[in-house]
Amino acid sequence: MFLRKLTVLLVPLGLMLLLCLLIPLFGSMDAFFGPLLLGAVLGIMLALLLPLAGATRMREPFAWLLWIPAAVILLILLYQFLTTQQIGRDIPVLRLLMTGDTRIITAESAFAAYMLAFSVRTGKGI
After folding, report:
1. According to DSSP H, which parts of the chain are helical?
2. Residue 124 carries which DSSP code?
3. Its domain of life (predicted)?
4. Given phi > 0 = left and psi -120 to 50 = alpha, else beta, which region is 61?
5. How far is it, in rounded angstroms, from Cα 121 to Cα 114?
6. pLDDT digits (tens), the chain, 126 positions
7. pTM of this prediction?
């Protein structure tokens, strides 16, 4: 019981320390891939913290459906990458998805990574 409590206390602190060490590394990367990787690491860390918070149910009946919105977000991220490479900027409907803001790219990749990790952990996976 003590080891479980110690794990609940120390693992999030260790993950935060790891994240604090990785943020300068991601900040020195490309303006697209740095925030993308930072968001992916954040999403995966959040999904791995769920069991520590008491979400130990291993089979959720509809968790495998999370790959659908994750795939949509990954397609949006792909389009945003293509626009940074000056490809596909002329499509009028997709111009709404163009962004140069790194915070949005980080949030989108965090959501996608979280949903994919949670889907694999609790559902049938992809």
Report:
1. 2-27, 33-49, 67-84, 102-122
2. S
3. Bacteria
4. alpha
5. 10
6. 677 777 767 877 788 788 878 888 888 888 888 888 989 988 888 887 766 655 555 666 666 677 788 888 888 888 888 877 877 667 666 666 666 677 788 888 888 888 888 777 776 544
7. 0.71
